[in-house]
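Notebook entry, structure prediction.
Reason for the run: the old model in the group folder had no record of what sequence produced it. Starting over properly, with the input documented here first.
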Amino acid sequence: MLESVGSLTETPWIYAMVALSVLLDVFLPVLPSGVLVITAATAAAAGSATGQVPHEVPDIIALTLCAAAASVLGDLVAYRLAWRGGERLDRAIARSRRLTSAQERLGQALARGGGGLVILARFAPAGRSVVSLGAGAAHRRARDFLPWSALAGLAWAVYSVALGYYGGQWLGTTWLATAVSVLALFGAGAGAAYVMRRPVKAS
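New structure, fully documented this time:
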């Protein structure tokens, strides 16, 4: 996989691939968008180490902004689709304990003026999908949800790019560096999922 992606990272198409993967994984959480971002960032580290010209390797700032913007756009699309809803979507949410719980917890978080749950959800497996769809289906105000979505997307993008770039710098641009960086990303996701599953304490 790394070899095939590696050739792609030497072309501008890597940004389109990252954007498309991050945009769509709100609907298809199985897409390896995080792995793709980390691999591209590792390629950027390789380029800085070998002195390759800038157009031959991804730019980490552009890569970060690309991933963050696609994350917010994907959240917005899911939010708007769920807002418009329909009987089928409403029934699906009502049958899903996970979506129902997310709606309740997100409503409480936004009502208190905090959106830490949105940021946590961006790291948890499928958490982004649950929270974005839940916010739209519950008709939470866009001005309450989208700023936190933007912060979540930026935090996730910065973390993912930093993992790939500094992993490549410290461990060398090998499959080991990429594997360690991916494990760190999955570790953050597991931690976020654990926190999200904890019951809310009554105030």
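Summary: Confidence is low (pLDDT under 50) at residues 1-6.
The old model has been moved to the deprecated folder.
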